[in-house]
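**Paired protein data**
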Amino acid sequence: MVKADESLSNWDYSGIMPLIHHVGIHGEVEISKGCGRNCQFCTPTMQSKVDIPLEKVMKEVALTVTEGSDHVTLITEDLFLYGSKDKRFIPNKEAVVGLVKSVADYPGVKSIQSSHMSLAPVVQNPRMIKELAEILIEKSWYSLGKKAIITAETGIETGSPRLMKKYMGGKMLPYKPQQWQEVVTNAFGILNDNDWYPLATLIIGLPEEKEEDMLQTLELMDKLKDYNAFYVPLFFVPLENCVLMNKKGAEMDSLSQARWDFFIKCWEYNIKIWKPTFLDNRIHNPLLYKAFDHVFIPSFGKIAGYYYGWTRGEQLKQAFWTLSTPQPTAKKSTN
């Protein structure tokens, strides 16, 4: 197997790093590499951040448009830290807004999507979020109902201050681990107020995770129930070249009841918020919509529950049955 040389000495974007030769999938244009927050379960966060100069970013945007894409995906571990040199991860608002405005103003760019963002900069500089929203909402790629929205992936990972301090002490900087739940809820409020609806990952089964840690994560999820987001519960997997690479990964068969409750809660939120938009975009006949929602999905869930209950256990059966049962949906946004 041939592996790329990821050493910092080869990340010279001012000189030897080449530009892309052709348009990337979904108009991908890299704006930074690495992160530097040192989360122990992740590989990119262990690498110091290197920003790609704006002039090189714009050359790749120009190539992307020239080769027929009107969409640009900004590839980064954290959009909000572009141009930041602060060791406490304080964002450089002028650099971030300047980058996004330059891309948005380029002739032929109709939509922009960022790959990743972090939550602490949202709380630290809410004005930056507002200014970015004013630009990006006009270049939106996604919607909730008929409302244009902005999104990017972000990591919540856990509601436990103990696990935050142990495995990801840089994630919440410039704040402290014990402030993490407050940072998350405040950030979600600011994001939603500016039409940002994040895709948020959370990790089940971090090494030495205790029941009280999972209960704290459930507590955080309860605080987030009224916000618009898409939650992705992930099993801990030891990635190559991360600090926890030699630890054992989490397995579905060994989940406690609290972990199952957390898994189900994430998907209950997702279904409540996103199912109407998902079905509206695919089923336009009202009778067929109702039949699919109230008959087909519950029937499929019942059958899948029996099968997976037989092959994987009672808890997975109950999860399928719970998630396939019709439930009240979030009120659609239309303005």
Residues 1-5, 331-335 have pLDDT under 50 and may be disordered. The radius of gyration is 21 Å. The first helix runs from residue 54 to 66. The CA atoms of residues 311 and 317 lie 9 Å apart.
